[in-house]
């Protein structure tokens, strides 16, 4: 019918911006990773595995790459229009694999900061940043395990999947925003620790502070845009009760 065709056309028009939006988001994510790497390389002395501050430098790079950018990519898999028809299983595997990759990088990021603290005799887990960060990682591990059990393993009953799905979606966005908050607080904490004794103080806004503050804002924008994309109704995968969705 004409009404159906008009509705279909308007929906298609709404969905046209998704791929350019994804390209922009991908560029922004790449910029975040490049900037955190540049910060640690140029101002913080680079990278090593010797337990020094250069070991710590792996921590922000791995956290931004894993817990923000790769996690954001995993969250958006089901918004790609190609995923809306045909078998769902390959997309489930891609979603789960990207999230697992994000989790592995995140764990390596934790290893870096704990090994740095332990080799320097610095206490662990005393700051708000560390509490929030570890809480986010623990929530992420529960989210991944529950998602794997409910959606990838074949024996989860359909009613359980239907019950858990909105919870999984809610915590997906929540974990991303907690990751962004953890990154922002971590950048701030690192600048307060580093910009003193022999360097220009943070309050005088040296180039490093401007650069790292800008990085924090870009991470925030990335997180907000991912959550906005997840919330946009026209980009959501149409819910069907077909046998395909219960595979």
UniProtKB/TrEMBL annotation:
It catalyses: Fe(3+)(out) + L-ascorbate(in) = monodehydro-L-ascorbate radical(in) + Fe(2+)(out) + H(+). GO terms for molecular function: metal ion binding; transmembrane ascorbate ferrireductase activity. It is found in: Late endosome membrane; Lysosome membrane. It is a multi-pass membrane protein. Its cofactor is heme b. The keyword Transmembrane applies. CDD domains: Cyt_b561_CYBASC3 (cd08762). InterPro entries: CYB561/CYBRD1-like, Cyt_b561/ferric_Rdtase_TM. Its EC number is 7.2.1.3. The chain crosses the membrane at residues 18-40, 61-81, 93-116, 128-155, 167-188, 209-231. GO terms for cellular component: late endosome membrane; lysosomal membrane. Residues 24-231 form the Cytochrome b561 domain. Its main location: membrane. Keywords: Electron transport, Endosome, Glycoprotein, Heme, Iron, Lysosome, Membrane, Metal-binding, Oxidoreductase, Translocase, Transmembrane, Transmembrane helix, Transport. Homodimer. Transmembrane reductase that uses ascorbate as an electron donor in the cytoplasm and transfers electrons across membranes to reduce iron cations Fe(3+) into Fe(2+) in the lumen of the late endosome and lysosome. Reduced iron can then be extruded from the late endosome and lysosome to the cytoplasm by divalent metal-specific transporters. It is therefore most probably involved in endosomal and lysosomal cellular iron homeostasis. This is Lysosomal membrane ascorbate-dependent ferrireductase CYB561A3.
């Amino acid at each position: 019918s004409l009404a159906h065709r008009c509705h279909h056309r308007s929906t298609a028009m709404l969905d046209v911006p998704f791929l350019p939006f994804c390209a922009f988001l991908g560029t922004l994510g790449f910029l975040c990773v490049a900037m955190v790497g540049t910060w640690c390389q140029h101002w913080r002395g680079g990278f090593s595995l010797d337990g020094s501050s250069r070991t710590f430098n792996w921590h922000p790079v791995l956290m931004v790459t894993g817990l923000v950018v790769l996690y954001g990519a995993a969250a958006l898999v089901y918004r790609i229009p190609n995923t809306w028809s045909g078998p769902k299983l390959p997309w489930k595997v891609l979603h789960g694999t990207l999230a697992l990759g994000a989790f592995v990088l995140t764990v390596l990021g934790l290893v870096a900061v704990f090994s740095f603290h332990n080799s320097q005799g610095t206490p662990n887990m005393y700051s708000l940043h560390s509490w929030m960060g570890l809480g986010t990682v623990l929530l992420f591990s529960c989210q991944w395990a529950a998602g794997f059990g409910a959606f990838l393993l074949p024996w989860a009953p359909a009613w359980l999947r239907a019950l858990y799905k909105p919870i999984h979606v809610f915590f997906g966005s929540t974990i991303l925003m907690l990751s962004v908050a953890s990154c922002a607080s971590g950048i701030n904490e690192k600048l307060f620790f580093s910009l003193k004794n022999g360097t220009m103080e943070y309050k005088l806004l040296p180039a490093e502070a401007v650069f790292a503050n800008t990085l924090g804002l870009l991470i925030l924008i990335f997180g907000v845009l991912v959550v906005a994309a997840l919330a946009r109704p026209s980009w959501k995968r149409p819910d069907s009760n077909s046998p395909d969705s219960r595979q």
